[in-house]
Write a structure and sequence with these properties.
The protein is α+β, with helices and mostly antiparallel strands and about 210 residues long. It is built from 4 helices and 10 strands. The strands form 3 sheets. A 5-stranded mixed beta sheet has the order 7-6-10-8-9. It has a 3-stranded antiparallel beta sheet with strand order 2-1-5.
Length: about 210
Amino acid sequence: MKLQIKTVAALFVVAMVTLPAQAADKNKDHDKAARVAASQSTAQQADAQYVIGPLDVLGINVWHEGDLSGPLQVRPDGKISLPLLNDVQAAGLTAEQLAADLTEKLKKFLELPRVTVAVNQINSKRIFIVGEVTRSGAMTLTPGMTVLQALAQAGGFSEFADTKKIYVMRTENGQTVKYPVNYKNLIKGHGSQNVTLMSGDTIVVP
C-alpha cells in the first residue's frame, strides 16, 4: 500500500512539473505568434504608405476581367495605360488610392468593379553606393533606410576602404551637399552619423 501511495505521489509531482512547463511553452508560442503578427502589421503599414513613382512595376487585378489585369510599369511621366481608361495617373498615389481611383473610373464601363493594386517592384526610389565596397551600384531604397543598413546590403568594405572618410552625397536646392560618416563612430552608436537616406543619394566609400 505504501508503495502505491509513493507511486501516485511521484506521478502527481511529475504532473505538477509538466503542466507549468507546458503552459510556459504555450506562452512562448503565443508570444512568438504575437511578434510575427506585429512584424507583419508593421510591414503592411509600410507598404500601405508607399507612394508610387515612375518606373515602379504594379500588379493590377480587376476581378473577372483578365484583359484589364496584369503587371504594368509606370511610365516616366508617372502614368499607366489601361484598356477602356487609356492613361491614368499612378505616380504620387499609394496602391490603395490608385485602386480606389481605378474602381471609380471603371464604374462607367463595368458593374461593381473590384480592383486591387500591388507594388511588385520598386524602381523609382534608388540610392547608389560607389567605391571600396563588395557590391557597388544602384540599390532599392526601402522606407527609413539608413547608411548603416545600406552598407550592410553592399556586403561590407574592401581591404583598401578608408572607413573614416565615408560620406553621403545629396542634391539639395540644386547644390551638392556632403554628409560625412565615420564608420567606427557609426557602429559605436553615434546616431547623428547614421543618416536616413533619400532617393538619389550616393554613398561614397573612398
